[in-house]
Amino acid sequence: MSSKNEFKLVKRRVLMFMAWRNLTHKKMRSFLTLFGIVIGIGGIYFLISLGLGIQQLVTDRVVGGESVKSIDVTTANEKNISLDSDTYTKLKNLPHVIGIGGMYSFAGLVNLRGSSVDAVVYGANDSYLKMLDLKLLSGSLIKTGSDNDILINQSVLRSLDYKKPEDAIGKKITLIIPSLGVEEVQFKKEFTIVGVSADQSGAELYVASDILMAAGAENFNQIRIEASDVDGARSLRSQIKALGLTTTSPIDTVDQIDQVFKFFNLILASFGAIGMIVAILGMFNTITISLLERTREIGLMVALGGRDTDMRMLIIFEATLLSVIGSILGILSATIFGQLINLGLNLFARSRGVTEGFQLFATTWWLVLGTIGFMMLVGLVVVFIPARQAARLNPIDALRRE
Prior knowledge:
Strands 2-3-8-5-7-6 form a six-stranded mixed barrel, surrounded by four helices. It folds into two domains: 4-63 and 256-400, no CATH class; 70-248, no CATH class. A hairpin with a 2-residue loop joins strand 2 (97-112) and strand 3 (115-124). The chain has helices at 12-25, 27-63, 85-92, 126-132, 154-159, 165-168, 209-215, 230-242, 250-293, 295-303, 308-351, 365-382, 384-391, 395-400; strands spanning 70-74, 97-112, 115-124, 136-139, 149-153, 172-177, 187-197, 204-208, 222-227, 246-248. The chain contains 14 helices and ten strands. It is α+β, with helices and mostly antiparallel strands and 402 residues long. Helix 2 (27-63) runs antiparallel to helix 9 and helix 2 (27-63) crosses helix 11.
């Protein structure tokens, strides 16, 4: 007589088919269970994506167009160490540096048609302007070697009584800098407006740094460095501080924002966990009742050669199907609902004069995969007791049951 160990395991695709048929056989019960999972997973996904979206929105507004890999270098005491060409070269040769630019800053006057406008004059090279990521309304950026080009912002544009940015392109203005900081050297030169930036925080304009350098400016007011990655930026800051220089970086702000939103997202996920409890109880109830209803069926399968492992896998497959389908539907529902809210809020903002769009909900691949994986793990935990009961079922007792 053959022993039980001589029987082969039931093929996994057969068990998967049986699990699917078991769920579709009781459509209403399976639907209500899936509905509970959709609500639970959808609620958690919706709240977490809301938290991530708000975090990203706050980060973008606070940090602006600055890269988190950028570092601004200044000096607290120019007598001890200054931002001259030697310091610039030394910083450029540090590891992890992929870009570096210098910037002069002076108070100046802009003369046009007999009127004068106070403005902050920045002398920047190409690398610095590239890292600054200025948004242009019209025209182009200045370039190193462009002796007569100047870039103005919206505040200067309004002060010069131009209605549209394109109206100012090509116009001549006279720039006066009372002192370049070296023996009270005055700078005066006529420039041609080549671009208008969207910035309107204050009256600001940009010229090529080599113009001011040739006029007598010596030390940069600020040097901006771009690192190869965030970890490289952190390492660079330590090396720069060791040189006696002062550094600031958007990394500090981002780290503070991330710290605050860790607790905020945890609170949101806690609210969503209420729905998850309902979904877990619903799944446990469905699997347990399904096991009780099919006691004779499982007993017959064991009597015909089904192994304990087969019975356990059958119940696990049912829970996995419920988890995966419920997770996908929950994520899709939460995403669609979130996008509808985004659309409504953007339409409302535009009706109030806000032109820039925004996303209040963030969807990331790791959040999608993490949510599905989390629900599958929950499903395996929930199904542990029913699967154990199915594996230990005595076929004789099961076949006796009516």
